[in-house]
Amino acid sequence: MSRQNCYTCFRPQNQCYCSHIREVDTGVKFVFLMHPWEAYKQRTGTGRLTALSLEDSEIIVGKSFDSNRRYRELLEDESCFPVVLYPGEGALTADEFGSRYGDEFHGPDSQTVRTGRKLLVFLVDATWVMARKMVHHTPSLQTLPRLSFSASYRSRFQIKKQPASFCLSTIESTYYLIREMQEAGLCRQDVSVDHLMDVFDRLNEFQMESERLGRAAGSAAGQSISPESNIKKGRLPKEPAPSES
Ligand SMILES: [Zn+2]
Predict the structure, then answer these.
(1) Which end of the chain is more exposed for a tag (fewer CB within 10 A), N or C?
(2) Which helix or strand (DSSP H or E) is residue 119 part of?
(3) Angstrom distance (rounded) from CA 207 to CA 226
(4) How far is the CA of 12 from the centre of ligand 1 (A)?
(5) Distance 172 CA to ligand 1 centre (A)
(6) What is the Cα–Cα distance from 238 to 207, expressed in whole angstroms?
(7) Strand 29-34 relative to strand 80-85, pairing
(8) Domain residues of the chain, as ranges?
(9) Angle, in degrees to the nearest 10, between helices 170-183 and 94-101
(10) How far apart are CA 64 and CA 43, in angstroms?
């Protein structure tokens, strides 16, 4: 069996997801700040599939970003209004965000452009512990307006497996964020992002099938491809994690 990866979705070629991916235009730009471990080591990450599913999205790989050329370019781009999805003090729900900053950027529908800039959402794609370090080492991120979820969501995968914590995979976080932004009028409301969850469900199904086959073959340790390990390690909880210090 070939172990080569697809160069688009980075999955092993026999698990390539490209044919399941549909790109939608939400009217908002999404930039995934991806930890190198997610980008190169983590076989189970969903960030790349999420970016492939959204028009006007991109991935920047790094541990800190203030000296990253592309990141700085985006931050200084006069046509963008940058925000970050990150919980904690001062974080606003999409609704609150729209009320407070609505005049600063134009609406998601290009037909109703007001003066202002396009909304740009940075998402930190890493485990929660890594994400906290990335934000800590990128002071400019700390100065951006913060978005957070208005509700607690449970991972669909956890519901099947182990209903323990509040952590979501990147693709689920993005799905719920976009849904809340749609309700608040920040994202286009005439497009569906249900395909994000479809991709996630397929990943889970694939994982369970792989585990079943792995058990049957009595091997396959380390061949796991599900988002499960991400979820266990934790991503973007609604509330900040307790301080380490
Ligand atoms: Zn592919």
Answers:
(1) C
(2) strand 118-125
(3) 5
(4) 8
(5) 20
(6) 26
(7) unpaired
(8) 13-200
(9) 50
(10) 22
Amino acid at 91: A
CA of 11 to the centre of ligand 1 (A): 6
**102 CB contacts (<8 Å, ≥6 apart)?**
none
CA of 56: how far to CAs of 79, 148, 166, 232, in Å?
A: 14, 21, 28, 30
Residues 32, 35, 36, 39: what is their CA dihedral angle, to the nearest 10 degrees? Answer: -40
Residue (of 58, 18, 63, 16) closest to 38 by Cα position: 63
Q: Kindly tell me if the per-residue pLDDT of 220 is higher than 70.
A: no
pLDDT at 177 over 50: yes
pLDDT on residue 221: 46
Residue in the structure block whose two tokens are 């028009």: 55
Find the 15 Cα to ligand 1 centroid distance in Å.
8
Look-up: residue for tokens 């688009």? 8
Task: Output the CA 46–ligand 1 centroid distance in Å.
Answer: 13
- Sign for the CA dihedral angle at 241, 182, 57, 230 comes to positive
Model confidence at 125: pLDDT above 60: yes
